[in-house]
Design a protein that fits this description.
CATH topology: Rossmann fold
Largest sheet: 7 strands, parallel
Number of domains: 1
Shape: globular
Bound molecules: nicotinamide-adenine-dinucleotide
Low-confidence stretches: none
Radius of gyration: 17 Å
Number of strands: 7
CATH class: Alpha Beta
CATH superfamily: NAD(P)-binding Rossmann-like Domain
Strand content: 15-25%
Helix content: 40-55%
Strand order of the largest sheet: 3-2-1-4-5-6-7
Number of helices: 9
Structural class: alpha/beta
Distance between the termini: 36 Å
Order of helices and strands: EHEHEHEHEHHEHHHE
Length: 254
């Protein structure tokens, strides 16, 4: 059933083809938002799932690391729906990464992770800015990770990239506050998305130890993030900006 907490709102979710991003897109639509699902791979399944539940969604191809592609995504959103209220910067490189000591990370792999996770969030935020400024209102939700606060080893490029997302959120929030644009970070703990489950690096003891570190010691699913996402997207959080909200069952406390 479609709820109305985000009625009349238009959202872009990047990395919406699958996993956590698909869950974000479906949740925003279920709360009344119109959603542009964006990804470098096909978002057809996510869009169809939203439409099946009588929600409003369209899809667009984007490579978030390209300025031109991010701008085309924002233009499509405005031409389809007339505005952009919410940007969820969820596209990222994570589940395909192998755990390894930092000195074994190739320079190319480092650059690729930074290009998508850091530059991608910057490009998409910049691309939606003209529409949000015109409205004097907007919500940018950057997706980081609990790994930043824990200093998780064997993923230095990833942890550094998500640390940059937390820092970028704070500085962006200060620059954009005068325009009525709120910028916050949502930092998930280890979450059983489809792709994570298919990467053996995250199975066994790694997963068990992670779960054991939580105050609420159970597996985390994409749906666990959705209440916080809707809160950050809705007017309920209009006086909250520059913050990093960790959703991980209380593994990180900061
Ligand atoms: P995932 O790998 O399943 O999905 C990432 C999505 O981003 C994919 O659909 C992929 O096609 C898309 N993408 C990759 N590069 C892109 C590009 N250049 N342009 C556009 N789209 C691109 O990951 P997930 O587990 O669903 O995680 C989603 C987000 O949450 C990521 O930012 C990830 O870092 C973050 N996160 C995940 C976890 C976890 O445990 N799964 C924990 C903390 C943070």
């Amino acid at each position: 059933m479609i709820q109305s907490r985000l009625a009349e709102r238009v959202a872009i979710v990047t990395g919406a083809a699958q996993g956590i991003g698909a869950e974000y897109a479906k949740t925003l639509a279920a709360n009344g938002a119109t959603v542009l699902c964006a990804d470098i791979t096909s978002v057809a399944e996510t869009v169809a799932a939203i439409k099946e539940l009588k929600g409003h969604a369209e899809g667009v191809h984007v490579d978030v690391s390209s300025r031109q592609s991010a701008e085309e995504m924002a233009k499509s959103c405005v031409s389809l729906f007339g505005r952009i209220d919410i940007l969820v910067n969820n596209a990222g490189i994570f589940t395909s990464l192998a755990l390894k000591p930092f000195f074994e990370i190739s320079s190319d792999e480092w650059d690729k992770v930074m290009a998508v996770n850091v530059k991608g969030s910057f490009e998409c935020a910049r691309a939606v800015l003209p529409a949000m400024k015109k409205q004097s209102y907007g919500k940018i939700i950057n997706i980081a990770s609990g790994t930043v606060f824990k200093g998780v080893p064997m993923l230095l490029h990833y942890v550094s990239s998500k640390g940059a997302v937390v820092a970028m959120t704070r500085a962006m929030a200060r620059e954009l506050g005068p325009h009525g644009i709120r910028v916050n970070t949502l930092a998930p703990g280890l979450t059983s998305s489809e792709n994570l489950l298919s990467n053996p690096a995250w199975a066994g003891d790694v997963s068990k130890n992670n779960i054991a570190s939580r105050a609420i010691a159970r597996e985390m699913h994409p749906g666990d993030l959705c209440g916080t996402l809707v809160y950050l997207a809705s007017t309920e959080s209009d006086f909250v900006t520059g913050q990093a909200l960790v959703v991980d069952g209380g593994s990180v406390m900061h």
